[in-house]
Specification:
The chain is of the alpha+beta class and 425 residues long. The protein is built from 13 helices and 19 strands.
Length: 425
Amino acid sequence: MNLIGKKLLVLGGTNMSCEIVQKAKELGLYVIVADYDENAPAKIIADKASMVSATDVDAVVNLIKEEGIDGILTGFIELLLPFYQQICEKAKLPCYATKEQIEIATNKVKFKQICRDFNIPVVEEFQINLPISKINCENISYPVLIKPIDNTAGRGISICSNIDELTKNFEKSLSYSPSKQVIVERYMPWKEATIFYTAQDGNIFLTAIADRHMKNSQNNSIPLPVAYTFPSEYLEDYIDALDSKVINMFKSIGIQNGLIFIQSFVKDGKFVFYEMGFRLTGSLEYHVLSKTNNINILEHLIHFAITSKMSDNPLYNKIVPYSEKYGGNITFLLKPGEIGRIDGESEILELPEVTSCFISYEEGDVIPDRAVGTLLQVIARVFFVTNSKLELINVMNAIHGIFRVYSEDGQNMLLKTLDTKELLN
């Protein structure tokens, strides 16, 4: 179907939402962004901006009627997914998710329970009995993570090594939970992998698996990603052990269309799940997968928003989980402080293997102390595709050597990056 001239409403105008606006405009759509912040970055590049809040369902529905909007997308913002679903239902526009599916995807406890129903390994969790005390929490084996059951990007998560740290961080985690619920899980110092599935008309198929490389644990906070590399060294192990179970699990809740991703720990080829998402990811993996696995999920979600179909043609025939190419992204992290200078973006983009670079902040922006241990510390993601693992390592080393961020007084603000020698192990 020709999308030219159709109207797309983007809910939320964050910096990352600019990705949706730019791609939709490339496809010929007229794009409106709804956000209560008049300075929201995506509103600046949209064809039209609205001050309507994306969480005001009735106001957004009225906007849809007034503007003759053909489709809606929120993309990256998990907290807006329930509002997206309600708006689509009231406005009778295509929605790739149901209320029940969103509840499972955004609630760590519900997701882990459905995994157990299908005999899929999940991270062990411990029951908290209030008030927190040695007696009420004597079943807990430390270290553990405490985190809100319904937030993302590392917000409200702490590593606790004893009852005192658990007590100290309980209220912090609770404050980040919209439903005022937390979960305590065993701390898993394993490697990580992110698993991607695509759904089209009820057919669900594995798209890719990335090894997720973690570093920089700060002040008892969780490590953060510094790189993703495709394909995962554990791809065959996963397919043999879990792929069919996971597909059956998602079919059991009626998933028809969209992107699904799963966060997992992995050791010796054994996967242990801890959460999922039913939306575009902040890692922007489509910048890589469009080159390595023949699918740009952002384009297909935009297509679905307008037509109620992911594509006019079957996607299964295009996707190649066993890609012969190697790809990935480097995620640069910043210490708190004011950004004085960002160097190297244009030079990085001149590297032939680099497909794109996404910068999260501008010079003069401030990274607050509260960002520590969360994805608010991400300053840039650089995406690249190569023909071999050795070439991938060389490209990553080159990018590491080029990109620099300095504070107002000239100090290096970047945290540690991945030691690419680890990729040779």
